[in-house]
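Annex B. Sample input.
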Amino acid sequence: MPLDHLLLNRWWVGAAMMAVAAISDYAFTVWGARLYQRARHRIAIEGSYETVPMFEADIDAGRIISLRFILVLLLMAGFLGVCARFRESLGLDAPLYLFLVGFFVLIEPPIHVRHASNIVRFALLARSDSARGQITFSRWFTLAVSSVDFFSFGVLFLLGFGATRSPFVLGGGVRCIAFGVFQLLLAWKSKSVTTGQSHQHELGEPRPSGSA
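Annex B, continued. Sample output.
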């Protein structure tokens, strides 16, 4: 059965896909954060390992079970479940519902690709023979690079929509590009804070004697 038909004929499938992908995302984030701690003698990231502010505290604390994550998961899964179960009563046509499922689910492929890359990178960097020296990435740099991954997947999904006319794929493209913009805004905000702190530090530095 094609995916579109499965999503339309089994009301729970969309919510289940989103829930499984989100749980996997959180689990891989915790795993990646732990490996990152083992590799910090080689690579350091300014601020939190987590790039979504809502979950920074839980990931930084290494919480395997996050009440905040569970609440968000239940809200999102419940929303998709209600939309599917009462789609006709709510006046949602099939294309709009498929767009919503894609919007919630297809953000996960680029996220999981990033998880795989980070896990391999930090696992290898934990070895003494993997690299020399240490590098520290600014927060804004990390967020800006992250946005490129989401923009890339967003463009691919939009090209896929052009070829398939699938609302599901379109939803994924819109979500990835929107999240890429969100990451860029966070990067801009972080860079502004960093620049401001550097400027204040320069103003507060004592001038050499004899300077004008």
